[in-house]
Amino acid sequence: MATDQVREYQNYIGGQWVNGATGNTYSISNPAHKSRVLGSFQVSAPQDALDAVAAAQAALPGWAGTPAPVRAQVLYRALAILERRADEIARTITTEEGKPLADARGEVKRAMNIIEYAAGEGRRMFGYTTPSELPSTVAYTVRRPLGVVAIITPWNFPIAIPAWKLAPALICGNALVFKPASGTPLSAVKLVEVFAEAGLPPGVLNLITGPGASVGNALVECAQVNAVSFTGSTEVGTDIYARGARLLKKVQCEMGGKNAVILLADADLDKAVGGIIQGAFGSTGQRCTATSRVIVEEPIYDQFMDRLTRSTSKLKIGDGLDPAVDVSPLSSEYQQEKVMEYIGIGAEEGARLVMGGHALSGGIYDDGYYVEPTIFTDVSLDMRIAQEEIFGPVLTVFKARDLDDAVKISNSVKFGLSSSVYTRDIPRAFRYINTVEAGMVHVNAPTLGGEVHLPFGGLKSSGVGQREQGVEAVDFFSEVITVYIDYADVPRDQARFI
Ligand code: UN1
User: Fold this and answer.
1) Which of 14, 182, 344, 424 could lock onto 55 through a cystine, CB 3.0 to 4.6 A?
2) Mean pLDDT of 263-287
3) What residues are in contact with ligand 1 under a 6 Å CB criterion?
4) Ligand 1 atom nearest residue 287's Cα
5) What is d(CA 174, CA 465) in angstroms, rounded to the nearest whole number?
6) What pLDDT is stored for residue 2 in this prediction?
């Protein structure tokens, strides 16, 4: 590896960039150019997590005591700085995570949107007043910060997901310890630089890089951490939720998906094929809202398959920095191996591989973690590829007799994050909306994404805790305190409440 001139990055604790306690670092490289090292980062130890928590505790009173509209000013400055650095940070996302530059730019924009939205909450953050049952009494609610909050984020949206946790947590007055995925620490460093330059007081936002198993657990187990917001796999999220619950922490976990598009016979097929391809193969399928299943009403099955395979075969695969590229590499060797393992499992289980299925090699492909867009048909519900999250460019296709059969297939998995139906039939669309088991439901649109002022999250094994973004984010990152004020100037009968 060309490791000369590799910059070493540090943790950020109490407003200082500092080395971790182990003294060890690890390096990361570009998934499209394995030999290009992007930087080296601290292998933090549990002690670093505790130091970061102590710094957050020290900063908490000052930040919690700053009026929310004043806290918002820091976020507005962060928004302007992120806008100024948008192109550079989008390139960092592409070179670190691998996604196409257009997607990375969209991701930065999304981070800007959530910062803007959260800053606006500084002038809202509503509680409510309501009549008391007693005379001369005022009853209302007010929000208070949770305290020190741990933010644990995945590698696939290394700017947007941290932003949509950090910004609402900050506007609510919390002090934070941010532990990004070990695969994407550079994006995290840049996001922290943005908030630091914006004038966030030292200790309000602390960053520690390194392995989840030791550092992440140290945060979750730390008595001084009041809440945890996590996005990542269902396996890790379940463990974090259980650990947090034992210590009575507020925990929010946004986890996996196995999102299905239902394609009904009356749908606009061009629109549907475009949305399905974008959902399945955009960002190389590495998003929790990716489309991993299509359930097609029988009469249009053959016609759909023909269009799907023809359009998929036109996708250009390569380095995400090449503007012509549709599908870029997987983010790491580990992800590539995992996806290839699932493709092998699908073949062994007896599903029919109708497209793709290979890790690409030769030329530029030797230097990155590429897997072809892959499509399986003849998939049955008991197969692992029908049930488990693959997190790569692999689509499984099912046939359904009618809408009810399709919804049954869609609901047959343990996940319930996002979903979509393509139809022009309004009654059937509403029947779908009312019965599909998913936290986010789309009609005539891909399963992907969401807008920052609307709640994001899922049912079943896809999520637990509270939704992210929207007003729900403020609900998660604040405590609601109920206040009763008796303003009578004469003593009152002691039997106050019924
Ligand atoms: C999106 O699909 O636009 O980890 C966002 C994830 C999700 C975020 C997805 N928490 O992929």
Assistant:
1) 14
2) 98
3) 154, 156-157, 161, 231, 254, 287-289, 448-449
4) 11
5) 18
6) 46
> Which residues are the active-site residues?
254, 288
Tell me the three state secondary structure of residue 478. strand
Contact yes or no for 415/256 (Cβ under 8 A): yes
Q: What is the mean pLDDT of residues 129-142?
A: 96
Residue with tokens 């998913």: 438
Backbone angles phi, psi at 33, to 5 degrees: -145, 85
Q: What is the distance, to the nearest Å, from the Cα of residue 391 to the centroid of all Cα atoms in its chain?
A: 13
Position 102 pLDDT exceeds 50: yes
Which of ligand 1's atoms lies nearest the C-alpha of 290?
Answer: 2
Total Cβ atoms within 10 A of residue 434: 9
Which of 159, 161, 448 should be mutated for ligand 1, with most atoms under 8 A from CB? 161
Is 157's pLDDT higher than 90?
yes
Residues 6+ apart with CB under 8 A from 471: 455
pTM (2 d.p.)? 0.97
Q: Is the pLDDT of residue 495 over 70?
A: no
Burial 379-400 (b: 16+ CB within 10 A, else e): beeebebbbbbbbbbbbbbbbb
416 CA to centre of ligand 1 in angstroms: 13
